[in-house]
């Protein structure tokens, strides 16, 4: 069971790697292709449009051909993207291949948490579901570390490295290795028992459940019967299943959508996509900016491990409350720090003593996100929906998350031109709204069996 969850979570690693690898390439790509702020933002965020499309179709595809085959398709798309992005001739080629990679990331972002939730027992589902987020932050760390290493090796991201290719191209090509590994590992995964029951293959479903959960014959029969009962309405969910009889979305779907949107509207991916550019803009060298980015990603990994240990003990909702409160405070401090910046001949300059405060606030912000909204939202999305609509509801929620990510990532360069204090003040406002939302609407799912989840 743990090995199956780890293998599925490799999709999260690719998710993190593919989305963060752009960080070290932004300035080099912008200079090489002479891009303005708007096209730079789109080149960074176009993968997120692909991710929204991939997430949208992943649910129906997974219900049609299975969870495991869908993971293999995602691996192939990510491999193609790695090779394409590394060998582009112009910015529109880059945008195309980033979009293709986004399709794979979006599919992986839906299938991995759904698969993990469907093979895990309720008592351990939070910890196993957190493997998805742990894999994501490890992927982010690996991408940022490889960016820093390749840039240092070449003497800069825009400098040539092996075979005459610039270092930024090798940053993209590095994604090929984990993409191949993902395809190989997922080829050995057992299919989800809930998918097998939906297809009428109860014998294989029972065998997978026996191997995963170690159930005896009588308990195994009851479990298969419970799954069959929870799926009795129809085998292949459709979008209309997300609607109430009187019209409008089911409450649980609204909650999933808003969890997804708030996870992105607090601005976390600005840190992971633009942090190297951000720290360079306030006076740090390229090498120092990349080092700071790597240290931030290490922080993210460590606090995700903390969340991993707490999510099944403390519960989902308390962690979200703490995270929202902490992010509101730290984002407000960052907005104040950048409001003190002055514009000089070399760009923005923070007053003496303010730079360290901004760095500490940024890393504390990552701590609060990493221990709460990062892992917990993926755990909730994998488990909160009833069996009969899980795949399609998760696909819709994940697509909304990617669209929200696209909106934040595309607009940041333009918001930064208005003022970094305005940008971080806006994210602080969304963090405060997320706190209100959690207190009022979020549901606790700790210890509840998937068959008992309600609309």
TrEMBL record:
<dbReference type="InterPro" id="IPR050820">
    <property type="entry name" value="MFS_Sugar_Transporter"/>
</dbReference>
<keyword id="KW-0762">Sugar transport</keyword>
<feature type="transmembrane region" description="Helical">
    <location>
        <begin position="393"/>
        <end position="416"/>
    </location>
</feature>
<feature type="transmembrane region" description="Helical">
    <location>
        <begin position="289"/>
        <end position="311"/>
    </location>
</feature>
<dbReference type="InterPro" id="IPR005828">
    <property type="entry name" value="MFS_sugar_transport-like"/>
</dbReference>
<dbReference type="InterPro" id="IPR003663">
    <property type="entry name" value="Sugar/inositol_transpt"/>
</dbReference>
<feature type="transmembrane region" description="Helical">
    <location>
        <begin position="248"/>
        <end position="274"/>
    </location>
</feature>
<feature type="transmembrane region" description="Helical">
    <location>
        <begin position="33"/>
        <end position="57"/>
    </location>
</feature>
<dbReference type="Pfam" id="PF00083">
    <property type="entry name" value="Sugar_tr"/>
</dbReference>
<feature type="domain" description="Major facilitator superfamily (MFS) profile">
    <location>
        <begin position="4"/>
        <end position="446"/>
    </location>
</feature>
<feature type="transmembrane region" description="Helical">
    <location>
        <begin position="136"/>
        <end position="155"/>
    </location>
</feature>
<feature type="transmembrane region" description="Helical">
    <location>
        <begin position="95"/>
        <end position="116"/>
    </location>
</feature>
<dbReference type="InterPro" id="IPR036259">
    <property type="entry name" value="MFS_trans_sf"/>
</dbReference>
<keyword id="KW-0813">Transport</keyword>
<protein>
    <recommendedName>
        <fullName>D-xylose-proton symporter</fullName>
    </recommendedName>
</protein>
<feature type="transmembrane region" description="Helical">
    <location>
        <begin position="69"/>
        <end position="89"/>
    </location>
</feature>
<keyword id="KW-0812">Transmembrane</keyword>
<keyword id="KW-0472">Membrane</keyword>
<feature type="transmembrane region" description="Helical">
    <location>
        <begin position="318"/>
        <end position="338"/>
    </location>
</feature>
<feature type="transmembrane region" description="Helical">
    <location>
        <begin position="358"/>
        <end position="381"/>
    </location>
</feature>
<comment type="similarity">
    <text>Belongs to the major facilitator superfamily. Sugar transporter (TC 2.A.1.1) family.</text>
</comment>
<dbReference type="GO" id="GO:0005886">
    <property type="term" value="C:plasma membrane"/>
</dbReference>
<keyword id="KW-1133">Transmembrane helix</keyword>
<keyword id="KW-1003">Cell membrane</keyword>
<dbReference type="InterPro" id="IPR020846">
    <property type="entry name" value="MFS_dom"/>
</dbReference>
<feature type="transmembrane region" description="Helical">
    <location>
        <begin position="422"/>
        <end position="442"/>
    </location>
</feature>
<dbReference type="GO" id="GO:0022857">
    <property type="term" value="F:transmembrane transporter activity"/>
</dbReference>
<feature type="transmembrane region" description="Helical">
    <location>
        <begin position="167"/>
        <end position="185"/>
    </location>
</feature>
<dbReference type="InterPro" id="IPR005829">
    <property type="entry name" value="Sugar_transporter_CS"/>
</dbReference>
